[in-house]
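User: Hi! I have a protein structure encoded as tokens and I'd like to know what sequence might fold into it. I'm fairly new to this, so please keep things simple.
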């Protein structure tokens, strides 16, 4: 049920209201619409992809099978490496075990490690499609991971202590990581490299243009999609445990009410899952 809500109410709503119009013709979007459209796609692809995996995991449980988790609040990550521990976790483990480790991992020295990180992520991007956009998307993540490793290696080489883990520093790392991820999403979502560059250009040149696509509902959906990832997993587990203790009749009424709410809040028609393209 949670996966269906993510897909129909969050992902499809954002796709229809701002993401598809902005990415379809970047030259017509204002800077604010472009920025919110990029953030909107970040929430859309998370809600769409994690929603469909939630549905698959739930159906498998009903049939007696236990699938591994595939998402763990990825937009709370404090580094790109942490992001890939939380985003599409089954693919991340596959890339690590069948690309990064066979390439040599971190066994050949610092330069070899940076090279292997970059190659692994570029090949991971190419896996999504034979297009430069996906290669650049992979290179952005690979370059960010190599840079993070380089900075850590430099601190160790100079004998510098780790920076204090303050709340302000933690939130800065989360915000910075989210911006890098969203920068990569521009290339992942755009149809061509030229469209991606047009999107980035509009962030600079499009200020002052009308912003009809930026509505309170769109901002609320984006905020909700990100904020819910900061809910502790223990809280969600307790809610699921409480639901499991209800009688079958009460569960049936709750699920029926949930379906009505999803149907009422979702857009018209049925849109395909984003990752069916891959």
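Assistant: Happy to help. Inverse folding works backwards from shape to sequence: for each of the 278 positions I chose a residue that suits the local structure. Here it is:
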């Amino acid at each position: 049920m949670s996966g269906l809500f993510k897909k129909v109410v969050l992902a499809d709503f954002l796709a229809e209201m701002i993401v598809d119009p902005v990415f379809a013709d970047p030259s017509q979007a204002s800077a604010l619409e472009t920025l919110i459209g990029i953030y909107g796609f970040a929430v859309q692809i998370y809600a769409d992809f994690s929603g469909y995996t939630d549905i698959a995991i739930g159906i498998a449980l009903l049939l007696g099978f236990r699938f591994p988790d595939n998402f763990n609040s990825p937009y709370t990550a404090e580094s790109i490496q942490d992001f890939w521990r939380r985003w599409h976790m089954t693919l991340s483990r596959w890339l690590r075990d069948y690309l990064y480790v066979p390439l040599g991992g971190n066994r050949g020295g610092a330069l070899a490690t940076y090279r292997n990180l970059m190659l692994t992520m570029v090949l991971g991007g190419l896996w999504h499609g034979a297009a430069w956009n996906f290669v650049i998307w992979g290179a952005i993540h690979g370059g960010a991971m190599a840079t993070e490793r380089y900075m850590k290696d430099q601190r160790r080489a100079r004998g510098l202590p780790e920076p204090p883990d303050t709340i302000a520093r933690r939130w800065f790392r989360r915000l910075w990581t989210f911006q890098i991820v969203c920068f990569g999403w521009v290339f992942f979502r755009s149809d061509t490299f030229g469209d991606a560059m047009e999107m980035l250009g509009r962030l600079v040149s499009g200020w002052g243009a009308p912003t009809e696509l930026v509505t309170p509902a769109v901002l609320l959906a984006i905020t909700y999609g990100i904020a819910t990832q900061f809910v502790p997993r223990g809280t969600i587990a307790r809610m699921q445990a409480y639901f499991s203790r209800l009688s079958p009749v009460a569960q049936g009424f709750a699920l029926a009410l949930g379906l009505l709410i999803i149907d009422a809040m979702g857009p018209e028609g049925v849109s395909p899952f984003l990752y069916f393209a891959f």
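A useful reference point when you look it over: The longest helix spans residues 31-62. Feel free to ask if any position seems puzzling.
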